[in-house]
Write a structure and sequence with these properties.
This protein is α/β, with parallel strands linked by helices. It is built from 15 helices and 18 strands. The structure holds 6-O-phosphono-beta-D-glucopyranose.
Length: 519
């Protein structure tokens, strides 16, 4: 398919929020395992409320939150009400809340107890009658990963995932395994019960507005797509850094580290969307096929090259916003001698015709001075023929796709400085999508829940994406296992370990960031 056809059909890709009623089969019961957990309260319930405010929930919908606590639905909903006030994008509106409240139920469930599933099944069947949900189910596993397989199995054993005459989908939060073998094992259990089409592996970055925008920016603009290759691009830098530490997640994080927590999923998704070829069409599988091709083309380094091209770091004590913060090893539930990385920077090479010799520099870390996720495309310099001798070095053209906290696109180019002297300066065009108050972008989970309900899995990871990304990660992790790192190696509030700077300096480059004139 040519660029023109893609541009013509680009409007379809994200369908500009079609109403779920256009999908007659979207009536369902959303069953949330982990209903009393942080994710449900901070993200899922506020997202459902936002969707309701935007009239994007199907008429026939019920939600059943499952947890270990012995509380009533009223008590549960009181907590949800509070969470919505705190975390939803829309202000609390009592009429809207009542509508949502009438769809929410709480049930106590012991994940490993078969008889609880029998009771649950009877309860869900009864709700089908009351809400007209026809046996359709979404099972959302917002629980610790060690429970993914037992829940799946129990759903199957109790006849709750039979897919006969109605659909049942499963939504799985990350991490999907902790390496390739464990991910394969988990996948076998899940696909033994749910088909790939009904399996929704969440990477919440894919629900972010600007990630969805990457393909539109590329494939809907004549200005960008023709030069999106190694003839015109010098290097690409992808950064996702945060000021927060591990907070109360020490137990999980100390086992995972930044490589598994951020790189295996979010960072590789950013990379693939930036690098994919135009898909043959804009349907789910064509886009996923192209993403997999990028992952398959990623260079796997030899152990020696891992140390040259992949930097790891761990924060020590320092200051964030002038406030003292502890080092990683002093965080709650973290080993005082932990060798877990909280920062990763690496150079990735994609071996295909489009990207040969274009380095992708990628970094992610906790406790750096500013929270920011962005993709910076640095174009090659023009021949220094006309201007070099008169005006010195020209600045490179830069395109920045700003993912968060600001969403938008920034473009830097060269222009003459007003005045009698012929001086060239870099100038910027800066488009901010979420700066206007009336342009309140949906939260990632809104889009993802909306898509699960209507059965669109484009923004979820297909198994082979997960598989290839684990292969890439395992290669790095196994080289790292051979050497004990010298941690901590950066102070909280600094930009990361010195070696992350050297990684680019070695290639005659440096990390770029927006916010000020980029040189
Ligand atoms: C999660 C990671 O997936 O993403 C967290 O487990 C990280 O460690 C978070 O803080 C970052 O998400 P966001 O949307 O704030 O960039």
């Amino acid at each position: 398919m040519r660029t023109h056809d893609l541009i013509e059909r680009a409007g379809n890709i994200f369908q500009l929020n079609p109403q779920p009623d256009n999908f007659p089969d979207s009536s369902c019961i959303l069953v949330i395992f982990g209903g009393t957990g942080d994710l449900t309260h901070r993200k899922l319930m506020p997202a459902l409320y936002n969707l309701l405010c935007e009239n994007q929930l199907p008429q026939n919908l019920a939600m059943v939150a499952l947890g270990r606590r012995d509380i009533t639905s009223d008590e549960y909903c009181y907590g949800v009400y509070e969470s919505i006030i705190k975390f939803a994008r829309f202000d609390m509106d009592e009429t809207s809340w009542r509508k949502l409240r009438n769809k929410i139920y709480y049930k106590k469930l012991n994940i490993t107890d078969s008889s609880d599933y029998e009771t649950l099944k009877t309860f869900l069947d009864k709700l089908d009658q009351e809400h007209g949900t026809g046996g359709n189910r979404i099972y959302y596993l917002a629980v610790a990963p060690e429970f993914f397989d037992v829940i799946t199995q129990k759903l199957y054993d109790n006849g709750m995932a039979e897919n006969r005459g109605a659909w049942q989908r499963v939504v799985i939060e990350k991490p999907f395994g902790r390496d390739l073998p464990s991910a394969q094992k988990l996948n076998r259990v899940i696909t033994g019960v749910f088909s790939e089409r009904n399996t929704y592996r969440i990477d919440h970055y894919l629900g972010k507005e600007m990630l969805q925008n990457i393909m539109v920016i590329r494939f809907a603009n004549m200005l960008f797509e023709p030069i999106w290759n190694n003839q015109f691009i010098d290097n690409i830098q992808i950064t996702s850094c945060e000021t927060i530490g591990v907070s109360s997640r020490g137990n999980y994080y100390d086992q995972a580290g930044a490589l598994r927590d951020m790189v295996q999923n979010h960072m590789l998704q950013l990379l693939t969307l930036t690098a994919i070829e135009p898909p043959a069409s804009l349907d789910t599988e064509s886009i996923r096929d192209e993403k997999v091709k990028v992952l398959r083309s990623l260079e796997h380094y030899s152990p020696g090259d891992v140390f040259k091209n992949v930097v790891r770091g761990q924060y020590g004590p320092g200051y964030i916003n002038n406030e003292p913060v502890p080092g990683y090893r002093q965080e709650e539930n973290v080993s005082p001698t932990s060798g877990t990385e909280t920062f990763v920077a690496f150079k990735a090479c994609i071996h295909n015709f489009r990207w040969a010799n274009v380095p992708f520099y990628i970094r992610t870390g906790k406790r750096v001075p500013v929270k920011s996720t962005e993709i910076i495309i640095q174009f090659k310099p023009l021949p220094q023929v006309l201007y070099a001798r008169l005006f010195g070095q020209l600045n490179p053209n830069l395109l920045v796709i700003k993912i968060q906290p600001q969403e938008g696109v920034f473009f830097q180019f060269n222009a003459k400085k007003p005045g009698t002297e012929n001086i060239i300066v870099p100038v910027q065009m800066d488009f901010c999508q979420n700066c206007r108050l009336d342009n309140n972008s949906p939260e990632a989970y809104e889009r993802l829940l909306f898509d699960v309900i209507r059965g669109d899995s484009t923004l979820f990871a297909r198994w082979d994406e997960v598989e290839y990304s684990w292969k890439f990660i395992d290669n790095i992790a196994s080289a790292w296992k051979e050497h004990q790192p010298e941690f901590p190696n950066y102070a909280a509030g600094s930009t990361g370990p010195a070696a992350a700077q050297t990684l680019l300096e070695r290639d005659g480059r440096h990390w770029l960031h927006t916010g000020e004139v980029i040189t």
